[in-house]
């Protein structure tokens, strides 16, 4: 796909991102590419601004910046491209040191769009949805401040109920399989697959292995004990307190996350580069 216009957005309060965005903006304009808004703003682009003819959203920041922007801009159905100013950079394809060469190939058509499923969530309280949204990486039902276990009631397809006493349960997308899920013992899953990964966090006296379900399935989670203090956490960035009687509905979201990727980098090669696959010393 050849790109003729972009939205350029940056990590908030980052001088490095601001300075680099000005360089990139000038370079893109030299290539005849239209910029949908001035770089250096807070990055809070809204669908009601009336200027969304862009074919690409370029984000300067780390994976966390991509997660927050993607949740806000997902309904635009425009591919994202990340320039890595973070630590791991699993979703940010371009280095800030060699961005000209890499970006030249990307915007001229030497790239592929990885279309990835997203999870939707609803907190249902007394029969009504009090919170809802989407998660690029994961939705987590987890214990609150106190270092004590919680019992999560998990309703799986086929009317299967499991009450799992643990620190919580992670509901992950394949994109999020390399994040919190893998640290809790979940599998590494290719991001183009369409599945939901369920991984318990430190389960106590319960033999519940990480579970992979088709994305067409819907699961429900609730806090099974009336005195438990728990939260719903979204991509490690948003948090909602759960009260006894709440149900959390988790299913596939109506929109996919589109990420522009270099065809020269496979998922397996990224796992090696980021240290997920290596020989034990």
Describe this protein's structure.
- The strands form four sheets. A six-stranded antiparallel sheet has the order 7-6-17-14-9-10, with no helix packed on it.
- Residues 38-52 have low confidence and may be disordered.
- The longest helix has 16 residues, at 15-30.
- The chain has helices spanning 15-30, 63-73, 99-107, 180-183, 267-273, and strands at 5-10, 34-35, 56-61, 80-84, 112-116, 119-125, 128-135, 138-143, 150-156, 160-166, 168-172, 195-201, 211-214, 219-223, 230-234, 238-242, 247-252, 257-261.
- Strand 6 and strand 7 form a beta hairpin.
- The chain is α+β, with helices and mostly antiparallel strands and 281 residues long.
- It is elongated and about 60 Å long.
- The protein folds into two domains: 5-116 and 256-273, Probable inorganic polyphosphate/atp-NAD kinase, domain 1 (Rossmann fold, 3-Layer(aba) Sandwich); 119-252, Probable inorganic polyphosphate/atp-NAD kinase, domain 2 (Tumour Suppressor Smad4, Sandwich).
- 17% of the residues lie in helices and 36% in strands.
Average pLDDT, rounded to a whole number, is: 88
Largest sheet geometry: 6 strands, antiparallel
- Rg of Cα set: 20 Å
Please count the beta strands (DSSP E, at least 2 residues each): 18
Structural class, from secondary structure content?
Answer: alpha+beta
**Percent helix:** 10-25%
Terminal-residue CA separation: 43 Å
How do the helices and strands follow one another from N- to C-terminus?
EHEEHEHEEEEEEEHEEEEEEEH
**Overall CATH architecture of the largest domain:** Sandwich
- What's the number of domains? 2
* Helix count, DSSP H or I runs of 4 or more residues: 5
Strand order of the largest sheet: 7-6-17-14-9-10
CATH superfamily of the largest domain: Probable inorganic polyphosphate/atp-NAD kinase, domain 2
Q: What is the top-level CATH class of the largest domain?
A: Mainly Beta
> Per CATH, what is the topology of the largest domain?
Tumour Suppressor Smad4
